Structures are given as C-alpha cells and as structure tokens.
Amino acid sequence: MNAPADTAEARELALAGMGASRLRKEDARFIQGKGNYVDDIKLPAMLHMDIVRSPLAHARIRKINKEAALAIPGVHAVLTADDLKPLKLHWMPTLAGDVAAVLADEKVHFQMQEVAIVVADDRYIAADAVEAVEVEYDELPPVIDPYAALAADAPVLREDLAGKTSGAHGAREHPNHIFTWQAGDKEAADAAFARAEVTVSQHMYYPRVHPCPLETCGCVASFDPVRGELTTWMTSQAPHVVRTVVSMLSGIPESKVRIISPDIGGGFGNKVGVYPGYVCAIVASIVLGRPVKWVEDRIENISTTAFARDYHMDGELAASADGRILGLRVKVVADHGAFDACADPSKFPAGLFHICSGSYDIAAAHAEVKGVYTNKAPGGVAYRCSFRVTEAVYLIERMVDVLAQKLGMDKAEIRARNFIRKEQFPYRSPFGFDYDSGDYHTALNKVLDAVDYKALRAEQAAKRADPDSPTLMGIGLVTFTEVVGAGPSKMCDILGVGMFDSCEIRVHPTGSAIARMGTISQGQGHQTTYAQIIATELGIPSEVIQVEEGDTSTAPYGLGTYGSRSTPVAGAAIALAARKIHAKARRIAAHLLEVSEQDLDWEVDRFKVKGDDARYKTMNDIAWAAYHQPPDGMEPGLEAVHYYDPPNFTYPFGIYLCVVDIDRATGETKVRRFYALDDCGTRINPMIIEGQIHGGLTEGFAVAMGQQMPFDAQGNLLGNTLMDYFLPTAVEAPKWETDYTVTPSPHHPIGAKGVAESPHVGSIPTFTSAVVDAFAHLGVTHLDMPHNSFRVWKALREHGVAA
Amino acid sequence: MEVKIDKTYPLEVDPQRAWTLLQDLRQLAGCMPGAEITEQLSANSYKGAVKLKVGPALAQFGGSVEVVECDHQARRVVLRAKGADKGGSSAAMDLNAVIEPVADAPAKASLLGQASVVVNGKFAQFGGRMMVQVSEMMLGQFVQNFQAAAQQLPQAAQAQDVSPAVDVPQAPAAAAPARQAAREINGLALLWALIRGWFASRFARPAR
Predict the structure, then answer these.
(1) How far apart are the first and last CA of chain A?
(2) Tell me, what DSSP letter sits at residue A630?
(3) Tens-digit pLDDT profile for residues A679-691
(4) Do residues A650 and A426 make contact, with C-beta atoms less than 8 angstroms apart?
(5) Positive/negative CA dihedral, A436, A441, A443, A444
(6) Terminus of chain B with fewer CB atoms < 10 Å: N or C?
(7) Are A712 and B86 a contacting pair at CB < 8 A?
(8) Is residue A430 within 8 Å of residue A355, measured between CB atoms?
(9) Where does chain B have alpha helices with state H?
(10) Are A328 and A399 in contact (CB under 8 A)?
C-alpha cells in the first residue's frame, strides 16, 4: 500500500517547505483583479456614510445645522456628537490609555477632525449632504509646535482633561503634556559623560509622515436587529482586538460580534487603530438596522487616520578619544497630536524606542521621551516598523556618524569598534533588552568587501579635491539592530490582552490541511509562507495547505499583524501546533507499524522503522488512520491549536550602504548604489524576503527623500494629496542590491526573526547618512529629512556650493 | 497659511481723490472683484461678502470688516476683515493702506498696501500653491478698479478733509464709480491671467 519510495531529497523538494522560493499563492487573485477588499463588499440595502470634517485646527463649535442636509432626498441620517452622547459613544478609549473624540464634542482639535456623519442611499448623495451640513465655529488659537505647546501661556487643547494631573503613563506637568517616559540609568549615563574624553550632541527632527497604504481605511458594518449580531468587514491589521474593543464599546457580547478583515491593500501600521469612521458606521448600522459602508478617500486617509513618527530628538554620545562609546543620552519631544492614540504595547508610551543603543556595546544609557498634545491629527503608529524602532535606529545611527566625524574616524571603523561581539550574545542592553543573537562584524565585512568600500572612499576623496566636479558624493553606512516580535506577555499587552499569537491546524483525512491564524496578511504573503512552515514540520506539500486569517468567527484569537510579529510570534505558533500534530502522528505511526515510538525515525514526510527502510508510514497514511483506525484510547482526528507567548523579542539586524551623487547646482540627489544585507535568522521563503526588502527599501526611500506632512502656523495640512505626498514608483526607486547572512534566533522554534520592516528601519538613516556625508567635508553633521532636491539645494546654497 | 503682501501701486489720480475713495468702504469693496458691503453694523464696522468661483467650486465668504484706524493726516486706513465660507474655509486680512503724493506730479499718487492674509481650511489646503499669485492678481484688479473709480470722483473735494474721522459711509455716494468688477471673481479669467503672467515672467527673464 505504500507508494514507491523516491529519494528523500526529491520528496523534500516536492513539499516546497521552508527555504523554498515558492511563488506567492495570493498573487493569482491579485494580479487578475480578483481580490476581495472592503470596498468590494456589497450587501443588499447597504447605505453609505460620509464624514463632515473640520476645516479648522482649533475651534469651538457654536452650532451645527443639519436641516439642509436632511432635506436632501436619499439622506437617512445626520449624526453629531450630541446624538452619540446618550450611547456614551461620542468619546472612545485609545490604545494608549487616553480618550479620543468619535465626533467632535463642543471643540475641534485638528483640521479634518470628524464633526458629523451623513448616511445616505449612495456615496454621491452622502458627499453632497456633507457639503450641506452647516457648522459654525469660533476660532481658537492653534498650537502646532510641540515645544510651544508646553509654554506656560499656551492655549489649553484638551479641556476634557482639565484638572487631571496624571494620565495613563504618570504625572502630567502641563495641560498639554501627556507623559514623560524614561528608560535606562540616568546616573550611570551622566557619570559616563562626566568622565568622557569626547562628547557630541545633535538635534534632529524625524518628520511626521504617513504610511499611506494603497487601499485607504474603511468598513462595512452590518447589524442584524433580529439576531442581535454585528458583522463588520474592516481594513484591520488586528481584527480580534477590534472585536474585543467593539464588544466593550457597544455592549454586544463578543460572541455576537464578528470582524472580518478581507484582502487588505497594505497596512504599514495605518490599519492598526480603531477610527471614528468605523465606530460611526457601526453605530449608524445599529441605529438604522441596515448595512452601512464607509471608505475614506485619499485626503481623509493622509489627513486623519494615523500618522507616524514626529519625534524631535536630541542625542548625545560620550566616548573615549579612540572612539569607544561610553554613554548615550537621548531626549525626545514627541508630537502626538490631539489625542494620545499611539499604537504601542500598553506599558510603553514610546514603544520600543529604548532599542536606541543599537548594535553597540554601550555601558550606560538613558532616554527620556515627553509626549505632547498639539492641534494635529492623532496617531503615532509604527509605520512599517516595530513601535518607534525606526526613530530609535535613526537616532543612534546618526549619532554614531556625528561622533565619527568629530573624531575624524571612518564610519565603518567606529562601528566595528563598538559592535556587540558575537560571543557576547545573549547580550543585555543598557536599557534591559536581551538581544538573542547576532554576528555584526561578519556582516559588516561582507558588505564592505562587496561594494569595495576603500575604492568608494578614494573616489569620494578625488571628487572632493576636484573643484570642477559636477557632483558631491556621499557614502552612507548603517548597521542597525531591530527589536521585533512583540511580545512576551510579561512585558507586552494591548488593552490588557497579552501579545501572544495563535494557530489552529487541522489535517484532513486525505492528508491535506488547513491552518487558521490570529494574524492577518496585508500583502506579506502569509498564505504562502505559513504553509511552508507546516510543510516542513509535517511533511505535507505546501500546495495542499490552506491558510485562513482575518475572520474572528473562525480564526483563533490573535493580536494581529504589525511590528514584524507574524513570523516571530505566529510563525512559532504554527511550528508548535504542527509539532503537537507531529507527536500524535508518531503515536499513530507506531501503532500502525506495530513498533514503539522510539523505534521510529522521521524523514521528510514519513516515519520509518529504524534500520528497515521498507517499513514506513507517510503523513498521508497517518492522516487517514487518524480518522479511520486510531489506536485504542486515542481521540480520532489530527488537529491542534497553539497559543504562543514568546519568551523574548527577536533581534534581526542589517548592514546597509548607500552611495549618492548630488548635483551641486540643483540639489538633485541620485542614489547610485544601495546595498542591503539583512540577517533575519532562518529564511522561510527567500523570494518573499527579497520582495519584502525591496518594498521596505522603497518605503524607506520615500520617507528619507520626500515624504512629509507640512503644517502651517494655523494647523492647515499643506500636503494631503498624492500631488504633494511622495509615493515612489518604479520610476523613482533606485536599484536595490540585497544580500544576507543567517544567524538564527536561539529561542524561536524555527530560528526565524522577521524581516519585513528591517529594510524600512535600516534604510532611512542610510539615506540621511549618505546625503550628510556628501556635505561632511564642509563641517555639516546632520541634515533633516526629507532630502528632496529643494531642501538639498538650500543646503548647498547655505554652504556656498550652489549659486 | 499666511500670505504677506507689501506693494506700491502707482495711481493716475491725485492724492486727494484717491484718499476720498479709500475712506469709503462701500465703494472700496466695490473695487474688489466679487466683494461687496452688505450692511453697516456700527460707525466703523460692516458686514460684507466675497464670492470666488474657480471652475465648479464656488466659495462664498461672509464676514465682517472693521475700520481699525483712519488717519486723515497720513491718509492711511487700517482695515481688519474676517470671513468664513460654509464649505469649510476661512480667511482673515489685516490691511494697511496709505495714499502718498508723488513728487512733482500733483495728478498722480501712490497706493502703498501692506496686507497679511491668513487663509484656513480647504482654500489653504488645496489652494496653497496658488495663494500668492491669486492674491497678487486680485490686488492688481482691485487697483485698476480703484483708480478708475477715483478718477470719476469730482475734482474739488477739499471739504472732505475737515470731516470727522471714521465718518465715511455716506460721503461720496453720489459719485457712482465705474463698476468694472464682476459680481464674482471669474476663475477662468483669473487662471488665464495667472498663466499669462507666468509665461511673461519666464520669457522676460534674461537668459543667463
């Protein structure tokens, strides 16, 4: 009954398991336009919602006149904060322990804030009715600069918090102050500075940017008044958390709330939060008893739903004269906008910013982050990064460059001198992180050899010496370490729910399988890579493994996909669920082969009797038997669930090098070369990793070279369309060269660390490093992003290079 | 966003008549394309409206104008105008306007205008790039209309000088200036003027 035996290698290849560059299973439907996104959901009797938004950044609402809007045929409802008040839904809790207005309650706090909603028969009527809602405002002085927000006479933004001297993260020292959060050892850091031979300091601003996924946020809320059940299709990176929040807010039992994240067109952190639009659509559906769709347009997306960054940072390094870093001090003023709606694990109001000691063995460090309210949209999400890791990596990498410049040392040399050495792992950082594994020196040398670093430096020296050179040449180098895979529930929770993740695998009688996950892909290729993990663990071809995510009624509870946590957390849950099945399969195989379990060897897809190659049972045979003739006393079936609470974060790292040529007359900055070496531990699908890295580098390029959200003094956002907001395409994006080393995570079941965000986190400071390097001989130590031609040209003029 | 304008416009009219017109807010508003004074609220404050049409978008600003200062000696008025549009924009302007004589040319004058215009909401968000050009265009049209209206005033209006300060509205109502201004700002014409101006500045620039 056994099939003729192929070689083990051939069978392994046929599984397309871990390590295979398997084509993405998702792409067949995406490239044919057969995806199913929220806006594709059309239900019978569905109504459409649109939002009346504030034109002003700070104003008191005198009056809202709905009459004209309600008179338009096809308009079903116009709701304001006053209508939500009886339901106590005019304010909602945020992930950061603050509250946020669902609809503006007496005051508007930022431009484009939600003031009222209109529900109508179609999107066009709704849009017309939005124009017809008359809102009268009394303008108030806006607060745009976070430093000015803390001035003694600054206008008070959050009148709802009047008299509250402490918030979710400790004491508040000013009405516009949210929290002051500290990490590290201040005394030790101060002592290091006191005795240091060299110190450097640098102020830098990490601009407010927006993740700007291709698909904007939206939902279709459908409340069934007969059954009392609420189903909502939503662009959410964390559907289970949303279900819990919706149940808490609405009072509907969690068992009657179903959140479905269908195909999602990119998230990058933008789709983690719960936004007023979702809440209003749900309320409207409950009130009207009909499905209600809300999909934001591009301007609404960029203006209101979750920005990222906006950190004003002051860094300081203390070092010995030969470039050994002894101490790090950081002070940050964080502009959180009108409500503290940062998406961070509850205990970390500045996320994992304290990874800012980077890849370096620094004895003493201290960081302080001060969160401030301003009249801007709320947010502060991790834009393709793990909770403020991008800001942290930017800070430390810029500072190491500044120190190298001060000491006249080479960027590569100073990094190699300060790296945590291979034998120091596991390494405890001065901020208390336990780095799992790394081999920075090997990776750095690999990159320097690959690009012929010495030759690049020689070329640069020649160009600097040549007054007629049409370009300035800059070389950027970044050697970053990330902290991802949040996270251990002893440290990380969201609204009190530990940040575990989950997997349920069922192997069917004929040997195919389905896995259901607590995560949700937004383009990461989970359906492809998760199946590969199972294929290797269980010997089932990945082609016959279905992966389902995003429907809270079928998937086990999980915290979702963001912060590069899918592989480190859910990937581990898969492996461990598979291993439970594997253990049961071994018992069944032993029964079928009439030997003891110890007499069996596992080989690719089968258990073999030791020393007798002819006697074996494949996973196919075992699956059939599990449903047909399990051993006496054993439950039938072959399935398992695993909830994985990671013992630690994972710490992927990378070495990035970039060469830019800046036109000295125009400031146009060309990326001549970008070499990215990533180490994400075990590599599940090299092709998907390559794609992730290309995407992350391109988004990093976008942030560094063009993205910004400029506000004027009145709080008008002057750049909320794609005419202004830079989204690079293949036309603008440079050519990327990728490379890798493999340093598995010792604590992760398959040694994988997560990769999708590394290229974003790592590339941004690399671009800055390269641009600044082009100016370094002129004494420039730092230039703030974005490095667009205009800003670079201004710097050229300032330093007498351009006319 | 804030736009600051500081410009001197030559006028083909004597300082006295120009000053007479400058004090008359109703007439003055008539010179601004699309603007009018709809109601007098007090001795020195008025209600007004401005209509601006660009393509299919129509903005109707309603608001107030206050005469903050009217200095006959210096021939200077300081105005503060504020307005909002139901569609979600608001604007505020502080204007300091002075009529100065031109040496050796009694039939000529200069209008010195310093304005700070703060625009909020949709206009600031979507019109930000064009704000300076549009403002300058509008002022250019205003000055043309202003000059034409002033030229129509009777020559001998010396008596005006002794009238009490900030008592302007009724004074030269009979003068009926030529209202060249349309009742609303014509977006297409504005756009054409902008494009023309842009090309002119391009080709006028000497090649380097």
Answers:
(1) 84
(2) P
(3) 999 999 999 999 9
(4) no
(5) positive
(6) C
(7) no
(8) no
(9) 15-23, 25-31, 122-127, 131-151, 187-204
(10) yes
Q: Is it the case that residue B208 has pLDDT exceeding 50?
A: no
**pLDDT per residue as tens digits for the range A137-180:** 998 999 999 999 999 999 999 999 999 999 999 999 999 999 99
Q: Which of A623, A533, A535, A642 is nearest to A584 (CA)?
A: A623
CA A21 to chain centre: 24
Does residue B98 or residue A495 have the better pLDDT?
A: B98
User: By the 8 A CB rule, do A531 and A517 touch?
Assistant: no
Question: Burial level of B56, CB count in 10 A (0-12/13-18/19+)?
Answer: exposed
pLDDT tops 70 at residue B56 = no
Please, which residues have CB within 8 angstroms of residue A403's CB and are 6 or more apart in sequence?
A198, A200, A317, A319, A323, A325, A409, A414
Q: Which of A53, A258, A384, A516 is catalytic?
A: A384
Q: What is residue A699's predicted lDDT score, i.e. its pLDDT?
A: 96
Q: Quick one: angle between helices A572-593 and A526-538, nearest 10?
A: 30
| A485 Cβ contact partners less than 8 Å away, ≥ 6 residues apart | A386, A563, A564, A565, A567, A568, A569, A646, A649, A650, A748, A753, A754
Mean pLDDT for B143-149 is: 91
Residues comprising chain A, all counted: 803
Pick from A611, A658, A635, A624: nearest CA to A770: A658
Averaged pLDDT of chain A? 95
- What share of chain A has pLDDT > 90, as a percent? 93
Q: Which of B1, B120, B128 is facing A55, going by the closest CB pair? A: B120
Q: With residue A446 as reference, give the H or E element that holds it.
A: helix A440-451
Among A55, A131, A718, select the one facing B89 at the smallest CB separation. Answer: A55
Q: Which pLDDT score is estimated for A17?
A: 96
Q: How confident is the model over A535-587, as pLDDT tens digits?
A: 999 999 999 999 999 999 999 999 998 888 899 999 999 999 999 999 999 99
Is A492 part of the annotated catalytic residue set?
no
pLDDT of residue B186: 60
Concerning whether A237 is annotated as a catalytic residue, the answer is: yes
* Chain B CB contacts of A716 below 8 Å: 1, 119-121, 124-125, 128
CB neighbour list of residue A200: distance below 8 Å, 6 or more residues apart: A316, A317, A319, A399, A402, A403, A406
Task: Note whether A355 and A482 are within 8 A (CB).
Answer: yes
Give the pairing of strands A229-234 and A364-372.
unpaired
Residue of A53, A63, A114, A714 to mutate when probing chain B, most B C-beta within 10 A: A714
| A53 touches B at CB < 8 Å | yes
Q: Which amino acid appears at position A693 of this protein?
A: I
The pair of three-digit structure tokens given for residue B5, joined into one six-digit string: 């304008």
Among A131, A139, A716, select the one facing B125 at the smallest CB separation: A716
- B contacts of A66 (beta carbons < 8 Å): none
- What are the pLDDT digits (tens) for B28-49? 888 888 888 999 999 889 999 9
Chain B residues in contact with A720 (beta carbon < 8 A) = 125
Of A53, A54, A716, the CB nearest to B124: A716
pLDDT at residue B26 tops 90 = no
Domains of chain B (ranges plus CATH)?
Answer: 7-160+169-202 (3.30.530.20)
What are A365-418's pLDDT values in tens digits? 999 999 999 999 999 999 998 899 999 999 999 999 999 999 999 999 999 999
Is A757 marked active-site?
yes
Active site residue A134: no
Closest chain B C-alpha to A775 CA, distance in angstroms: 27
The residue among A712, A717, A722, A790 with the most chain B CBs within 10 A of its CB, best to mutate, is A712
